[in-house]
Amino acid sequence: MKIPALAARRLAGVRNGSFSFSSSSFSSIGARLSSTRHGHAAAESEPSEAWNSARSGSRTGPQWIFLGCPGVGKGTYASRLAKTLGVPHIAMGDIVRQELSQPTPSGAKLKQLMNEGKLLPDEVVLELLAKRLQAGSAAGESGFILDGFPRTRSQVEALDRITDIELVLNLRLREDILIMKCMGRRICSGCGTNFNIANIDVEGEDGGPRIFMPPLLPPPACANKLTTRADDTEEVVRARLNLYAEECKPVEDYYRAQGKLLDFDVMGGIPETWPKLLDAVKPYLPEESMSVATA
Predict the structure, then answer these.
(1) Is the pLDDT of residue 238 over 60?
(2) Is residue 131 one of the residues assigned to a domain?
(3) For this structure, is 161 an active site residue?
(4) Is residue 74 annotated as part of the catalytic site, yes or no?
(5) Could you give the number of structural domains in the chain?
(6) Which residues form the domain of 142?
(7) Is 210 domain-assigned?
(8) What is the predicted pLDDT for the residue at 25?
(9) Which one is catalytic: 132, 151, 153, 260?
(10) For this structure, is 83 an active site residue?
(11) Among 59, 74, 181, 260, the one annotated catalytic
(12) How far apart are CA 145 and CA 203, in angstroms?
């Protein structure tokens, strides 16, 4: 596991950027991105007045991203780390699913794309993210951990223009295990809690340690209310993994070139993985978070 060259930047006082920007600004940005999705014209053009306005002000909290294939555990570990750092966990998957639940034509269209294992258009994702950041700004949030965004190079370019990402955690796990995990995911229709019925116990590759991930089973109150996400079929999962490999590798390469990417191999369940993840990010934690992280 290679530590990125981030020491000089990781906790350097004032961080540029602000959550204060409008959804209309992001709508126009999304339109520009759509026209340049297969090139880099958006990154090379002069920032608009809306972009410059979005970069004013300062944040005091960490600005981190969690990357990784569907099912690798981004949400689980991003949520835990966000609590440790005292910053919001912004999960694009949750934001999208909330939109999917709305009985509107746009919600129905998003549901169709998700069920087919396709990535959502940039302008749609950016609009949803803008609304979430606006709400956070109004609530006085500072810093963030993004989970599930950015997914494409054009999204990276958009994010890079309004904030200064400090650390990008790239979680990795074998494809066969990812498929088993995704197929085992369940959601309680009553309380909305996520569970996983997959019991994974497989040999490590190339003489590596055995990988054991016990199921995360529901309590009796939830046992009869478990539902499966519509996009958690083997066909759709494989399609999503293929799309991730195609679309997200440029994202990894971009942050790796900046010295901000930290690769982390998931080799077990939460009890084994969480302490190792904390050790990996400890050099980048604010001093006030150290005691919490090591407790």
Answers:
(1) yes
(2) yes
(3) no
(4) yes
(5) 1
(6) 15-35+60-174+247-286
(7) no
(8) 38
(9) 151
(10) no
(11) 74
(12) 32
